[in-house]
Design goal:
Oligomer: single chain
Structural class: alpha+beta
Strand content: 5-15%
Helix content: 40-55%
Distance between the termini: 128 Å
């Protein structure tokens, strides 16, 4: 078959196919129209459109277009994040605020008056020892001699000092029961001041391997008169010195002259209630680094200068 004959045959075939399609469309158009039955509300109504000649020839099928949201993607993301954030705030913050409202106090209010024990309570309270098992107690009874002296569980730096004793007398003339002798023979202080200073001395001995050295502590009225006569301006007037109340000490020069020791005292003594008052510091009215006072007792007298 020649090329021309082949082309004529293809055109005839196409014309015959077109005529067949037209006859099919005409027959369908002559059929009576049947009203479609209303669809249920829950089912979408399907619509059928006429198939064009090009779709029949090419075999193309019309696909439904997928519905798209009218809200931009970025806006949908922000909205979702806002919802999640709101839920989190309601879950976490609401109970916190509710608890604050019920108590009537701010949860961030950390300022509160000190309610713990004072320095004297800390240094005088008994040391509690945990219970020992029966087996250990029996072993001690076997290995230790019966004549061994038992140690007191209530350990005190000054076992003969009665902190509860009343402070009676006047400046430079305190009653004997109102004074306690320190570790250094011949030196005395008021009971509470003596107990606190002795506790400081134990810490000092643990750090430096020796006792703290004192030049003066309680001073009677006659001694204060003699000191005033010899030192003049540098000595307090008789009847006004904190030494006369048993509330002050003077340290030896080996304590004030050693930078390591003096730095240790400066850092640790306030924890035991002892300080070098401001008037005795460099720049004060008198420079006396050796003079230290029991703060709570001096405050009680209304004479503390911090």
């Amino acid at each position: 078959m020649t090329r021309r004959a082949r082309r004529e045959a293809q055109e005839q075939h196409a014309q015959a196919l077109r005529a067949h399609v037209l006859r099919a469309q005409g027959a369908r158009a002559q059929r009576p129209q049947i009203q479609p039955t209303p669809a249920r509300a829950s089912q979408p109504v399907a619509t059928r459109s006429a198939t064009s000649f090009d779709q029949v020839v090419t075999g193309a099928i019309t696909r439904p277009v997928r519905a798209t949201s009218s809200v931009p993607a970025g806006q949908r993301f922000v909205s979702r994040a806002a919802v999640i954030g709101t839920l989190a705030a309601a879950t976490i913050a609401a109970p916190f605020v509710q608890g604050t409202a019920e108590s009537g106090e701010s949860p961030f209010d950390v300022e509160a008056p000190h309610t713990g024990p004072n320095v004297l309570d800390l240094v005088t309270q008994p040391v509690e020892r945990p219970k020992t098992s029966g087996a250990v107690l029996r072993a001690e009874a076997i290995t230790r001699p019966e004549s061994a002296a038992s140690r007191s569980l209530d350990r005190s730096p000054l076992p003969d000092c009665d902190v509860s004793a009343p402070v009676e007398g006047t400046n430079g003339a305190l009653a004997d029961h109102s004074l306690c002798e320190l570790w250094q023979a011949g030196e005395y202080l008021r009971p509470d001041a003596a107990m606190s200073l002795s506790a400081l001395n134990e810490a000092f001995r643990a750090s430096f391997g020796r006792e703290m050295c004192l030049v003066a502590s309680y001073r009677d009225l006659d001694t204060q008169y003699e000191l005033k006569a010899s030192r003049g301006y540098f000595a307090a007037s008789p009847g006004t010195s904190m030494h006369g109340w048993g509330l002050a000490i003077d340290l030896c020069s080996k304590e004030t002259g050693d930078s390591e020791v003096f730095s240790w005292l400066w850092a640790n003594a306030p924890s035991y209630g002892w300080q070098n008052p401001s008037w005795a510091q460099l720049g004060g009215s008198k420079y006396e680094p050796w003079h230290w006072e029991f703060v709570s007792g001096v405050v009680e007298k209304g004479e503390w200068q911090g």
